[in-house]
Amino acid sequence: MGFGSIKNVGIAVVDTIVKERNKNGEFKSFTDFCERISGESVNKKCIESLIKAGAFDEFEQTRNTLLASFEKIIDTINDTSKKTMQGQVTMFDLGQTENEKIENIKYKFTTLKEFEEKELLSMEKEMLGIYISGHPLEKLRSQIEKISTINTLQMIQIKEQNDLSLDGKQVKYIGIINSIKKKYTKKNTLMAFMTVEDLYGSTEIIVFDSCYSKSQHILLEENIVLIEGRLSIREDDDVKIVANSITEFNSDTQQNNSSNNSKNVGTDATVRPKTLIINITNIDEKQKSKLRGAIKFFTGDKNNIVVKVKNREQLLPCGAIYLTSEILEQFKEIVGKDNIIIQ
Predict the structure, then answer these.
(1) Are 47 and 13 contacting, i.e. CB atoms less than 8 angstroms apart?
(2) Mean pLDDT on 297-323
(3) Which tens digits make up the pLDDT trace of 52-103?
(4) Contact partners, residue 132, CB within 8 Å, separation at least 6
(5) What's the predicted TM-score (pTM) here?
(6) In which element (H, E) is residue 200 found?
(7) DSSP-H helix ranges across 166-303
(8) Where in the chain are the domains?
(9) SS3 string of 278-314?
(10) Mean pLDDT of 170-180
(11) Three-class SS state of 37
């Protein structure tokens, strides 16, 4: 996995990029990349996806700038290559050496400020299926912990313990809407099944017609919501939440209700989840690519540990994964055992 896990980027594209990099060295800039893969299997759609996924973040231009500029840059390169193949004389040919020609090719960047963090994270989620450089809920962590009474990891623990006594327990859950499936009931009214993600994973929320009719205006993908409802616990099935009410959540939401919500559901569930910290400060791009793929691969319905990535002094949240001793060994193999810490 790695670049191949990015939407619109397949194995053939990855092979082309890796082959070029191994043959002629690291890519020095975005335009260097475009020049060297010109005419190969890496098309505009692929490059757009790579930009959105953050593949060129180490270069000086912002993602916003690259998205506004990449098509013209690729057209310029393709046009120049075409004229050269046809034997036409371009303005770069007159009285210049080959190096001077290259130096004088001017690429026009439409320079723009970077997107807001929420937009960057949204693009990563769209392209990779997971958040890589952060999580949209991280800045709200303290407010979420004050108000919510349950999170995804605790729901997984309830399932593992098969604690049916908590069926029907009233809870508050805060997360970001990933997907919504609407369905008509026998009464010809709308209800919905939502997948909502918190800092530790995702869960299914059942929204019956009475709740849906009151909250449908905020039931949009990427909206952060506070869900008040009851647990639905069935044997051999994931723990779900049946929503009674859904409200939009932000840093000012429900502050008056936060004082009485520090007690979480269940006794074992009140223990703070463990964290897997991965130090990427001194690892190379190949290792980072493998790491991204591994985090995505082991993210699922059974997440049991929070993941954070350390880059020098920064400690960035990276969702949660399902971790066993065997899976831990795979992470150690990718980044080295000295770069793995569990707290």
Answers:
(1) no
(2) 80
(3) 888 898 888 999 999 999 998 888 887 766 555 444 444 444 444 444 444 4
(4) 53, 54, 124, 292, 295, 318
(5) 0.58
(6) none
(7) 209-215, 285-297
(8) 3-128, 138-267, 275-342
(9) EECCCCCHHHHHHHHHHHHHCCCCCCCEEEEEEECCE
(10) 93
(11) coil
Nearest to residue 1, comparing CAs of 11, 340, 56?
A: 11
C-alpha torsion sign, points 317, 322, 325, 326: negative
225 neighbors 196 (Cβ within 8 angstroms): yes
Residue of 129, 156, 64 whose CA lies nearest to 56: 64
Q: Which residue has the tokens 């616990």?
A: 233
Long-range pairs of 67-70 with CB within 8 A, sequence gap ≥ 24: 68/109, 68/110, 68/112, 69/107, 69/108, 69/109, 69/110, 70/30, 70/34, 70/44
Residue 257 in tokens? 């209700």
Fold of domain 138-267: OB fold (Dihydrolipoamide Acetyltransferase, E2P) (2.40.50)
Tell me the pLDDT tens digit for each residue of 112-160: 998 888 788 888 887 877 777 778 888 888 899 999 999 998 998 888 8
Any bridge partners for residue 220, and if so which? none
- 16: tokens are 């082309």
